[in-house]
Amino acid sequence: METTKFLSLGVVAMVAMTVSACGGATNSSAGEPPASTPVPAQPVAASSPAAGLERLRGEAVVGKDGYGVTPCGSDRQRIVEFAPDAQAFIDRFLEPGGRLAFFFDGWVREREGKWIVDSVERVHTEGPRCDAPLEQAMFVARGTEPFWSLSLSATGWELQRPGQEALRVQAPATRAGTAYVWESSAPAAKVEIVPGYCADGMADAASGWEAKLSLDGKTLSGCAHRGALALP
After folding, report:
1. Has residue 203 been placed in a domain?
2. How does pLDDT run across 184-200, given as a tens digit for each residue?
């Protein structure tokens, strides 16, 4: 089969702002965040800092010959294989309901003409697909009970909660082993993004990162995935 041409978003990462010191928070006007404008589907998204890895997004199916993925922007299905950890992730996601089709977002490497999935960012049967562009963020996290969403960059984060003003906080992203942390003093807050299987049963979805936000004496927990911006 024809190999799908990879696209790199490395240029996007170059415009990420320089990490700043912990600062204050500002509020924006309340209301629903603007809807994303659909963009033409693209084959494969961003390059990973890990050598040889490329991001693959597309429609996945489970067939008698294994797993097939039709990349965004392509009409050609490719057979993919999974590294052990990625296979365990997919097995866990597929096990409860016998799903045979889902949207796939993850990292692959090409080996002898085959795509090998190294890790999974997110999979879901309900939610954004190829017509939704990757968010301009390092990570995007979401949680329920209560509902909230968090967009994180190298210099800070923005928290959205229904019925409340958006909270924007300046805090530098730091790496702690395989995790990423944002800490600030005004307000006193800490965000942690840790690799691990994270399921959102309400959306029939699973992500490759767990998120935790400690703010105002409360802790919000949810799932996260990488956006378009490179990691520090």
Report:
1. yes
2. 999 999 999 999 999 97
